[in-house]
Amino acid sequence: MSPPTPTLALAAVACLASGFAWAGPQLNSTYQGDAFGPIELRSDGEHLTGTAPAGGPCQRPVAEQILTGDFQGNVFLGEITLCQTGDTCTPSRSFPLMLVYNVEERALAGVVKLEGGCESPALPRNGMLVLRATEQGAALTPAAAPATEQRQAQAPAPPPPSGGAAQVAAQRRLEPLDVAATLKQGQSLLAQNPIAASQQFQLVLAQEKEKNNAWALTGMGVAHYLRKQHPEALKYLEQARNVGSGAARAEAFFWTACVKRAAQESGFAQLALRQAVQGGWSAPENNALVERELQQFANEGAEYELLLKQARGRKRVQGREPQGAGSASP
Hints:
Blueprint: H1 6-18, E1 29-33, E2 37-44, E3 47-52, E4 64-72, E5 75-83, E6 92-102, E7 107-111, E8 128-133, H2 134-137, H3 147-153, H4 165-173, H5 179-189, H6 194-205, H7 214-226, H8 230-243, H9 246-262, H10 266-278, H11 288-300, H12 305-313
Antiparallel strand pairs: 1-2, 1-8, 2-3, 3-4, 4-5, 5-6, 6-7, 7-8
Helix pairs in contact: 5-6, 6-7, 7-8, 7-9, 8-9, 9-10
């Protein structure tokens, strides 16, 4: 894959540095990356979706929407679904994604961070993704290459040149962030706009020191649950339970119970809810989203009655930790 050109880099830097606010670009055509292959991008205001055809490096059985998110100026924040390879790797899952868009060259560039120790046939080993409009990037279509060239292509890709657009995106991921305020913003958006909420949680997870933030992972799980994407919700919630402790772990168990109840897996829902209550979970005050879930449990019958009574009978301690998904309290 050819690295981003200086023009792309300079434009990206200029837009990011200027603070100039503009509506998201309207991308309604086919874009393509080297190993990634083609993707059909469609804009609706600031919202962007991308559909990949059947086949490709991930061998999709049918065409599938794999990209979704929104532009903030020339920066796209969303998620992308990719296949992974590796003994302990999830075969396919969604990843937070930040891309920088350049108007003149009609190109998007950024870095996808896969699970540790995993690779994807759709990406080079450094995870850099560059998508160009096919009018400029038709030559990027993969073609049959001699065995020697294929072996060379398998070698670790060099890092992007200094100032490249992908590096700009990667650097932005590491910029200082008010984690507590960003989590609060994401939680306050969940009930009304799960996609916008997930973008806030992605900003937290994109920070190197916060990549295993259990509250942000739980927020991502809840956002997927509210969009009825239960498998993705359970993946994030499982990760939150594995890395979290105390109140954060109990919160992840509560929302796992909600997903399992919605999937009509009553036994697993009861077990997860019991784990949440035993871990000290209690219902936050004035949280309509949680109250709705508690009512759903109450409607399921007497088997939840004791657990709900314990959860409602406790007073959640006010502190610096987030007060539950959907809450506006830090």
